[in-house]
Specification:
10 strands, disordered N terminus, alpha/beta, eight-stranded mixed sheet, 2 domains, 237 residues, 9 helices, globular, Rossmann fold
Length: 237
């Protein structure tokens, strides 16, 4: 085991029978120098309040509103500020693809895995950084623009937070495989439930102790390539 990788516990499960690998996006496939996610960047840009995302997260956890309302509050503020596609892309481009991500995704596809995204990110992030869409299924929030490029609407995903586990179960059903054949790769507290439900889970550069405890393996690396060692390929079984 390299110094960049650490198992926090002996894995009760392994990746031997995995057929589908699902990924989180913010913090896993893309990153920000200040560890901000796209929601924080956009709230800072369009509301001028750098702490708004955190306050709304705490209100969501406290049960003051549901996930769809949380999304509506944020996107509604951006619409009120006159947000455009180009302005949003300016913030998106402050994110960076994790080094080795494109190559690792291509390698995993070549090894026979089906890939998916289950994330609370926004579709414009995925479209910007992964335009070839190597994913067989995508579950994210969506934002809508009018013909002039003004932000005009949204579709909240039902598959963030605890709902991520529901999305993984749906992927398994659609593929005709057991949930134990599905892996998940994530980094934060909203990945905990799906990490526990997946057949195998990886905490990639974890940002919270809860995901470290829930995952089978913890990987700490500046590059996503370190992940590939845990998924040697379906054809090799």
């Amino acid at each position: 085991m390299s110094r960049q990788e650490k198992r926090v516990k002996p894995p009760a499960r392994d990746a031997a029978n995995i057929e589908i690998i699902a990924f989180d996006v913010d913090g896993t496939l893309v990153s920000h120098p200040e560890q901000l996610v796209i929601w924080e960047l956009l709230n800072r840009r369009f509301t001028g309040d750098a702490l708004l995302s955190h306050r709304r997260y705490l209100d969501y956890v406290a049960g003051k509103f549901d996930y769809a309302t949380w999304v509506a509050l944020d996107v509604g503020d951006w619409i009120a500020a006159g947000a455009t596609r180009e302005q949003i892309l300016e913030e998106v481009r402050k994110l960076e693809v994790v080094p080795g991500a494109a190559e690792t995704l291509a390698l995993l596809k070549a090894r026979g895995y089906r890939l998916a995204v289950i994330s609370g990110t926004i579709d414009i992030v995925l479209n910007e950084f992964f335009p070839a869409h190597p994913f067989d299924a995508v579950f994210t929030n969506r934002i809508l623009f009018d013909a002039g490029g003004l932000l005009c609407g949204w579709e909240a995903t039902p598959y963030d937070m605890d709902g991520k586990a529901e999305a993984l179960a749906a992927l398994a059903r659609d593929a005709g495989v057991p949930l134990s054949a599905c892996a998940f790769v994530g980094d934060h507290v909203n990945d905990v439930t799906v990490a526990r439900e997946a057949g195998f889970s990886v905490a990639m550069n974890p940002k919270a102790p809860e995901i470290e405890e829930a995952a089978d393996v913890v990987v700490r690396s500046e590059r996503l390539d370190a992940l590939a060692a845990y998924f040697p390929g379906r054809a090799r079984r």
